[in-house]
Design a protein that fits this description.
Elements: H1 5-29, H2 41-51, H3 53-71, H4 80-110, E1 127-128, E2 134-135, H5 137-144, H6 155-175
Antiparallel strand pairs: 1-2
Helix pairs in contact: 1-2, 1-3, 2-3, 2-4, 3-4
Length: about 180
């Protein structure tokens, strides 16, 4: 049984949030000397990939801030400003990770690659489809990728097919002052 994309997305988000909570709890319980902020990148990556940039950035900002609130009551051998500076650096780093993951995912969606062998007629360049029909190469590629075609005429074909007409046009332009 295949899950619908919406249910799958909700499951992924819930899993990422649960993982974040576990990391926060372990991070706070272990005290100030064993810190696990690198593990915050995992839920940020997952949420950015499946939930988009806004959800990823919310997670990238929210996790360090929640951690800062929890750490407020824990005695530390360093000053509070160091903790705030580390939190700002962590927010910046996680936000950058979130943006990069979102950007890579959006670029991945834009790329659609044709793979395998394409049975093509050596004369008319039509492509044979799975149902044994022959289709113009341009329409086949447009249907199976995100490429679009714009037709033009190369100089060699212009000369080959319209050479006589082109010579007449050049002569007319040369004679007109």
């Amino acid at each position: 049984m295949k899950l619908s994309p919406k249910i799958r997305f909700i499951g992924i988000v819930i899993s990422a949030v649960i993982f974040s909570i576990v990391v926060l709890i372990v991070d706070v319980r272990e005290g100030p000397f064993i810190r696990l902020p690198v593990l915050f990148s995992l839920p940020v990556i997952v949420i950015s990939w499946y939930g988009g940039l806004i959800a990823g950035e919310a997670m990238a900002i929210g996790l360090p801030l929640i951690r800062l609130v929890f750490e407020a009551n824990i005695p530390k051998p360093w000053i509070e400003e160091d903790t705030v500076i580390n939190t700002v650096i962590l927010i910046f780093t996680l936000s950058l990770i979130s943006f990069l993951v979102y950007y890579v995912n959006s670029q991945k969606k834009r790329i659609k690659v044709l793979q395998g062998f394409l049975p093509i007629c050596s004369f008319c360049k039509k492509i044979r489809t799975k149902d044994e029909k022959w289709e113009q190469m341009e329409s086949y590629i447009t249907k199976h990728s995100e490429a679009e075609f714009s037709h033009g005429l190369c100089p060699e074909c212009a000369e080959k097919h319209y050479g006589k007409f082109l010579k007449e046009r050049r002569n007319e332009k040369a004679q007109t002052p």
